[in-house]
Amino acid sequence: MSVRGRLERSLTIDTAATERSALPMGHASLLGTILTPEGPRAYVHLGAGRIHKVRPGDMLEGAEVTAIHSGALTLTRGDDQRQMRLPATT
Fold this sequence. Notes:
CATH architecture: Roll
Shape: globular
Radius of gyration: 13 Å
CATH class: Mainly Beta
Number of strands: 7
Helix content: 10-25%
Mean pLDDT: 78
CATH topology: SH3 type barrels
Low-confidence stretches: 1-7, 20-25
Structural class: alpha+beta
Number of helices: 1
Order of helices and strands: HEEEEEEE
């Protein structure tokens, strides 16, 4: 994806994250993933305007963040493993 494409996608997600009722409430939504010199990080919207920056090993609503990849976050709770993906943009 080109730099322009990434910027446009980032702006679209940024706009959705700050628009009232643009993201579903009552459950977590992945807003973005980044790679830092200290390792991968993800931004997650938890509803009611709460946005958290997480890294592997952090706890998020009772589940452990076990992996962060480009555009995806893996959560594990006991034997249950789920993946969150970036919202689709139009």
